[in-house]
Amino acid sequence: MTGIQHISTSRRIKDKFVQGLVYLAFALAVVPLVSVLWLVISNGLARFDLDFLTHSMRGIGARDANGGAYHAIIGTLEQVLLASLISVPIGLFTAIYLVEYGRGGRLSRSISFFVDVMTGVPSVVAGLFVFAFWILFLGFEFSGWAGALALSILMMPTVVRSAEEMLRLVPGDLREASYALGVAKWRTIVKVVLPTAFTGIVTGVMLAVARVAGETAPLLMTVFFTNSINNDPFTGPQMGLPLFVFDQAGRPNDTAVDRAWAGALTLILIVMLLNLVARLIAWWRAPARGR
Amino acid sequence: MTTHLKTRDGGPATRRSASRRSHGEGPFRFVSTAAGVVLLGIMAAIAVFLISEAIPALQANKGSFFTDLIWEPNSSGVFGIGALAFGTVLSSALALVIATPIAVGVALFISHYAPRRLAAPLGYLIDLLAAVPSVVYGLWGVAFLVPLLRTPSQWLNEHLGWFPLFAGEGAIGGKTMLAGAVVLAIMILPIIAAISREVFLQAPKMNEEAALALGATRWEMIRMAVLPFGRPGVISAAMLGLGRAMGETIAVALIFPATFDISFEILTPHANSIAANIANGFGEATEMGRGALIASGLVLFVITLLVNMGARMVINRRKEFARTGA
Lengths: 291, 326
Prior knowledge:
- The complex is a heterodimer.
- The model of chain A has no long low-confidence stretch (mean pLDDT about 90).
- Chain A has helices spanning about 10-45, 50-55, 70-100, 105-120, 125-135, 145-170, 170-180, 185-215, 215-220, 240-250, 255-290.
- Chain A contains eleven helices and no strands.
- Chain A is globular, with a radius of gyration of 24 Å.
- Chain B has a two-stranded antiparallel sheet.
- Chain B has two domains: about 10-60; about 70-325, MetI-like (MetI-like fold, Orthogonal Bundle).
- Chain B is flat, with a radius of gyration of 25 Å.
- The chains are: A mainly alpha, B mainly alpha.
- Chains A and B meet through helix 1, helix 3, helix 4, helix 5 and helix 6 of A and helix 1, helix 2, helix 3, helix 4 and helix 5 of B.
- Chain A: InterPro entries: MetI-like, MetI-like_sf, Phosphate_PstA, Phosphate_transprt_permease.
- Chain A: Belongs to the binding-protein-dependent transport system permease family. CysTW subfamily.
């Protein structure tokens, strides 16, 4: 027989069968995403209103239907901002060291390895560490700042990895052109390399912020709880939005559970918005890099 | 070292003289290096302070930390990690068994099955699964998944009850190990899928085309050219997922019923984990109780550290291999 032979039926069936399985796997993975979003939106809208966003839980009785997450939103914003102020400089300089200075040395290899390992530190362990170090050992009180310390530990490795990736994408020609003009290495990094990689780094930082904004566990043992508004992250317990959701979800009343869903909706909106904007920045920048 | 090239500041040949020539180079380099060292220091500090704050509680423990199944540091002063460590390992192993096949399927779908144009957005959709906060998964698990699993659990118990995992009498379904494991599986799926996808995309195009040219079907091509190449990557991705699942806290803290026993019956409401116990117990803990929780956190830190280092070593070895092989 000449020409191309037909594929035997059993092989074709097997091929189609696996194709079916692969499509099914993807469908299975999307189902929980849709289900989570649907449930959060449909349950969260019941209490998601101006009253919820502008009031705290101060003086709200166990069965009262009102009350809101204002104190928690303020807390989360301050904690995440402080965590970024700590982790972005450290993360960025570490990335600069890894890419520009440390090339392949023993120190840079061990830093690189432990940055990877650090991404796997459980968030609850980061919280326990800050509790053990900041509150037990150094004797400070529970505060938003302690929470920010814990969150910054979780942010750092993400910031380092994304910044490192972006710095490596900066073409060596650019650096060499700058050297050839007699510019010092550090000025080359500040004036040429960083501006070139800037949007990419911003994207990475925003994704890191989105990741830690939803962390609950480290806040439990650093920020503690409060029902009142505390604008000062450096003194006294604060609240965080994820913590608010956890707290309300654990209460037995339906009114509290409704608040938990509304809090979850607020949290998801913040996190998804950060994600979306970060991806849009990356996408908008992509053509320049893709050439 | 030859310096006769007379390049200007910072050129590769005269890196040493650059600091002498320009102000700022030295400090800048110092700050960069210091930032990296700070990172190493944090990792060391985590170990040091967890150990130092755990020691007093461990010394005051009236029971045996490694073998006891009781956790009563606040009242009787006896606490043991046994049941909690068991729950952590069992729940994350189950999660891994559920998540890995689906994640590999998702990775293959995006790398080899989906239309090119759609691959990137669909991959982003999977990444969004990782963006959903843990506490939201916990809420979803309690409100949606727990009721959903009740009927299948009862069916499994009735028909496959001889199998140890599905055994058990009395209350079947509810806040079970299975429900927690499914939520964990959903949470670790994106990371396993993302890494596997990267590895599958790196599979040598030549081999794939050669297999297709010899008349292989798409599945045969994947089995011969993609899967053997991707296996180490998938294994390390699964290990990273395992580490993630072990450390996952709030979702399982909301779902697990916080019992202290060693039970393989994943369909009955017996489940707990180290992380869940920390989250649930911290609020009411006394000084001794907090020390005990820190000790359990130390155990969790060590386990996840070992799993993660193992995974990273597999990946790094592969990376070096790929670089020299290319």
